[in-house]
Amino acid sequence: MSINRKELFSKSRRIVIKIGSAVLTSSGIGLDQERIGKLAGEISDIIASGREALVVSSGAIAAGFAKLGIEKKPRGMPLPLKQAAAAVGQSSLMWIYEKSFGECGRKVAQVLLTGEDLSNRERFLNARNTLHTLLEYGVVPIINENDTVAVDEIRFGDNDNLSGMVAHLVDADLLVILSDIDGLYSADPRLNPAAKLIPLVEKITPEMEQAAGDALSAVGTGGMRSKIMAARKVGAYGVPMVIIDGKREGVLAELFEGGDVGTLFLPKEHKNRSRKHWIAYTACATGRIVVDDGGRTALVEKNKSLLPGGVVTVEGTFKAGDCVTCFDKAGNSFARGLTNYSATDLERIKGHKTIEIESILGRKDYDEVIHRDDLVIL
């Protein structure tokens, strides 16, 4: 398949640029101020061309290590140390960004997020409105995970995942991943010298996901697998993603001039609407519903809503409006949706007909357990 990159990227007006720790650090610990300054200049040039740019930046923990006198990332690093390093390093990271973009005549804003901020619909919309307002005022948002307060239950896991969520959050046209490797290879080029760069990915396959490795850099938390998952996430929303070598000077300019750099992941032709994409990839599922074969057929093949008669088992504690995952009787997850009934109420009405809901609960708020407008088939 032949793709005119220059034409594709010329239509991209709002860009999310994720910069990995390995790009921002000089030797694994501490920040490379010269490189950050050059990146700020390249991103400012992108904005000057009539585009908007948001930066998802790693680097706070690496900066914190340097200030704390830690010479390399400890193995099995305890969470409190990681959070302390993030607290110490985040101010240094922002100071360098403010100085670097300031020299280019640009203002920046710090935006720290946790998974809870995006899994809760109200907070998701609030974050969205804040970022849109910053862009209206010509400010460059510098976004990072709020490592100081984030625990495993609310973590994004890595900034590849976060950047994919931000691309959805702000309705971006393109996600650019600046990495310490210049794209997706047929094998890990650091282990296999015969590995070849894959310039274009039209469809992400299970084999591709399985072959992708985890992080090998001293400071990163993601790896090629997390980047592929980010590409899958934004691709479902209709957003292309490209991985390029963030350590190579001028690479962003070359990219937007249509240069054949890195690996381009094409999006799906038919994208999820914003609300359904949020349900599928961002909302935190708080329960499980096992659905019988007839219910699964109605959802998957007939685009119907889930009725109480199709519910076999209810697991977890959730309230009306929460996101739940639907499983078939074989244990396979096949859908996610926003439930109209709490776990307690659903336990009472499962397996019953819609006309019986009022007699069982003393009220009938909805006919459907999950309406098809609030349901996404995975």
Question: Which labels suit this protein?
Answer:
378 residues; alpha/beta; Carbamate kinase; Archaeosine Trna-guanine Transglycosylase, Chain: A, domain 4; 2 domains; five-stranded mixed β-sheet; 18% strand
Question: How are the secondary structure elements laid out?
Answer:
Layout: H1 5-10, E1 14-19, H2 21-24, H3 33-48, E2 52-57, H4 60-68, H5 79-102, E3 107-113, H6 115-119, H7 121-136, E4 139-145, H8 159-169, E5 174-179, E6 200-201, H9 206-211, H10 224-236, E7 241-245, H11 251-256, E8 263-265, H12 274-281, E9 285-291, H13 293-300, E10 311-316, E11 323-327, E12 333-338, H14 343-349, H15 357-361, E13 375-377
Parallel strand pairs: 1-2, 1-5, 2-4, 3-4, 5-7, 6-8, 9-11
Antiparallel strand pairs: 7-8, 9-10, 11-12, 12-13
Helix pairs in contact: 3-5, 4-5, 8-10
If you had to describe this structure to a student in words, what would you say it looks like?
The chain is α/β, with parallel strands linked by helices. The protein folds into two domains: about 270 residues, 3-Layer(aba) Sandwich (Carbamate kinase), CATH 3.40.1160; about 90 residues, PUA domain (Archaeosine Trna-guanine Transglycosylase, Chain: A, domain 4, Roll), CATH 2.30.130.10. The protein contains 15 helices and 13 strands. Strands 3-4-2-1-5-7-8-6 form an eight-stranded mixed β-sheet, sandwiched between helices. A five-stranded mixed β-sheet has the order 10-9-11-12-13, sandwiched between helices. A hairpin with a 5-residue loop joins strand 11 and strand 12. Helix 4 crosses helix 5.
